[in-house]
Specification:
Distance between the termini: 48 Å
Keywords: Kinase, Membrane, Transferase, Transmembrane, Transmembrane helix
Structural class: alpha+beta
GO molecular function: phosphorelay sensor kinase activity
Shape: rod-shaped
CATH superfamily of the largest domain: Histidine kinase-like ATPase, C-terminal domain
InterPro entries: Bact_2-comp_sensor_kinase, HATPase_C_sf, Sig_transdc_His_kin_internal
Strand order of the largest sheet: 2-4-5-7-6
CATH class of the largest domain: Alpha Beta
Number of domains: 2
Helix content: 55-70%
Pfam family, one: His_kinase
Oligomer: single chain
Largest sheet: 5 strands, mixed
Organism: Flavivirga aquatica
Order of helices and strands: HHHHHEHEEHEEHEE
Radius of gyration: 40 Å
Length: about 350
């Protein structure tokens, strides 16, 4: 780490030295215009170098980072004015240096451009402005990169939180789903019913879906429908003659995908909270696709007079839909004439 730091400092020193050598070359070329006195031009340029270097470094290492970028504008203007006054005074001194020490008070012996205070000041401040602009650009790019990294880190953190929340919701749904199914199977096992092996096979298919498919972000809609059918068959065995269920699918695309376990909990909820009417639980389910949308509808007999969205199932489904299909779905509940209805429309994404 120390070696790397020293190496970076050496590289920085070499780059600065190379740059100031280039500035010295620029000065000798600029002030050497229309004169053959190279000794005068070089001496005059060397005298200007400390003034230029000091003014530049004060600008890029003090004025810009400590006052301009921190929005301390009054202090920036004040100290910039001080720097301008002092540097201008030193530029005037440099002109007198050329006149007194290099030309021996002979104005005609001075290099033409070095006689003009304005041109000398332009040469110095041109370097200061160019370096300061480069410094501002570099700091702006660095700030932009830092901001982008911070935004990326924030997005990654938010994504992890969303994934954790989604996994938590899935964990709530799975035990709820399994509890209902195993409870049904337990009842059949007590009766030693012949349907028990078939129930075990159906449950095995559902568990396979639950354990190996549910962690995927999306599964085929046809796969979700097939497991809905398995679930319905299990419930038919449990309800026997007290169940009247109608499951319709229409225009289902073979390559259409959906979040796993998105529809089954709604169906599970209809069995759990649905009530018998005239000794029968009636449930109607339909899944269809049209105009790049999935339409899911379910209704069941219900004695409650008000729509209720309470309970693990429906609350979790709303949260999962918000996480997975935010602004790309509509979900409505209704309860009319003791019929509880759920309408879900998903935009295909």
């Amino acid at each position: 780490m120390l070696r790397k730091f020293i190496l970076n400092k050496i590289i920085q020193l070499l780059l600065h030295s190379f740059f100031w050598c280039a500035v010295l070359f620029f000065y000798t070329y600029f002030f050497g215009f229309d004169t053959n006195d190279f000794s005068y031009v070089l001496s005059f340029s060397l005298f200007l170098m400390p003034i230029t270097i000091a003014t530049t470094y004060i600008s890029i290492y003090k004025l810009i980072p400590d006052y301009l970028l921190k929005k301390r504008y009054k202090l920036f203007v004040l100290y910039s004015a001080y720097t301008l006054i002092i540097s201008t005074y030193l530029i005037v001194v440099s002109v007198f240096y050329g006149l007194v020490y290099l030309s021996h008070f002979k104005h005609s012996n001075m290099a033409p451009i070095s006689r003009n205070l304005v041109f000398v000041a332009i040469a110095v401040y041109l370097v200061v402005i160019v370096v300061s602009a480069f410094k501002l650009l570099k700091m702006n790019l660095k700030h932009t990169e830092k901001t982008k990294k911070l935004e990326t880190k924030i997005l990654e953190t938010q994504l992890k939180l969303k994934e954790q929340e989604l996994n938590y919701l899935k964990m709530q749904i799975h035990p709820h789903f399994l509890f209902n199914t195993l409870n049904t199977m337990y009842g059949f096992a007590l009766k030693k019913a012949n349907e028990t092996p078939e129930m075990i096979l159906k449950l095995s298919n559902l568990l396979d879906y639950l354990l190996y498919q549910v962690d995927k972000p999306f599964v085929l809609l046809t796969s979700e429908i097939n497991h809905i059918k398995d679930y319905i068959e299990l419930e038919k065995m449990r309800f026997n003659k007290t169940l009247n269920i109608n499951f319709i699918t229409n225009n289902i695309s073979e390559d259409l995908k959906i979040a796993p376990m998105l529809l089954i909990p709604f169906i599970e909820n209809s069995f759990k909270h649905g009530t018998l009417k005239n000794g029968v639980l009636s449930i109607k389910i339909s899944v269809s696709c049209k105009d790049k949308k999935i339409y899911f509808y379910i209704e069941n007999t219900n004695k409650e007079t008000e729509v209720s969205t309470k309970g693990i199932g429906l609350e979790n489904m709303q949260k999962r839909l918000d996480l997975l299909y935010k602004d790309n779905y509509s979900l409505t509940f209704d309860n009319i004439n003791e019929i509880f209805k759920v309408n879900l429309v998903l935009n295909i994404i």
